[in-house]
Specification:
By secondary structure, this protein is mostly helical. The protein has 8 helices and no strands.
Length: about 250
């Protein structure tokens, strides 16, 4: 049986026990331990003290322990991270291969056989610059498509190991091709200006992936709209829409 008393009731029970003990003490001092009344009085005082302190006859309940999932070990985390980096290597290869297809598609808007050449028949620096610009946009656009597919509706995907490692590999490719293109045009290579520009382009692609993931979470149909708008901002447009559809529907390598 559980007896629940308020704070004031507990104080009253304790005071009654004290009074009984005082009276019992005075009675014993005058009459001694005669009879059994003092025993009953003592038991009543003890009962009141117990009631005032806490519940009587209750069994302390053991807190229910909720099952917690054990934290992964360092070895487990290392295995997961290695798998993500391996995936990133495969995704980077896919990005480069897809960029080749996109580069050809972006070049279809130019008249057949139209090329700017120097008097000696070699491609002019302007032609080299245009080709380099298209290749770079194709590579960035391809990174965006693959990132959108992998992210699905998780906008924090771009903060994870897999995407960061994929992006780092593509950044290395972009840097090499941009430097080669500038050298082919006879332009000075200023890495202090070039690298921040490339990082800004990659940041733009990350934003497109985040917006696409948010659109997917809302249930919007065309998640590639932000990325297509980014490409249009550079004066380029994909003529074959199936390239985008195929890239986004291709089975994940995970």
């Amino acid at each position: 049986m559980k007896i629940d008393l308020s704070k004031h009731q507990r104080y009253a029970a304790l005071a009654a026990a004290v009074i009984i003990l005082i009276v019992l003490y005075l009675q014993i001092e005058d009459e001694g331990f005669s009879g059994y009344g003092w025993v009953l009085a003592l038991l009543a005082a003890v009962a009141l003290v117990i009631v005032s302190i806490g519940p009587v006859g209750t069994v302390a309940s053991t807190p229910v322990q909720t099952a917690s999932k054990p934290s992964p070990s360092k070895e487990d985390l290392d295995i997961v991270h290695k798998r993500l980096r391996d995936n990133a290597g495969l995704l980077a290869i896919e990005v480069e291969e897809l960029a080749k297809v996109i580069t050809q598609d972006l070049g279809t808007g130019r008249p057949d056989g139209f090329r700017l050449v120097s008097p000696d028949g070699r491609p002019s620096p302007v032609e080299v610059g245009v080709e380099s610009f298209i290749r770079d946009r194709a590579l960035l656009f391809s990174l965006g498509l693959v990132g959108i597919r992998q992210a699905r509706d998780h906008h924090l995907y771009v903060t994870g190991i897999e995407y960061k490692d994929t992006e780092r590999r593509i950044f290395d490719v972009l840097a090499r091709e941009s430097i080669s293109g500038m050298m082919a045009m006879g332009l000075p290579v200023d890495k202090d200006k070039l690298l921040p520009q490339l990082l800004a382009e990659l940041q733009s692609i990350r934003k497109c992936i985040v917006h696409a993931a948010e659109a997917a979470k809302r249930g919007d149909g065309d998640v590639s709209t932000p990325l297509v708008a980014w490409l249009a901002g550079h004066g380029l447009k994909i003529s074959n829409g199936s390239i985008i559809e195929t890239a986004l529907q291709r089975g994940s390598i995970l």
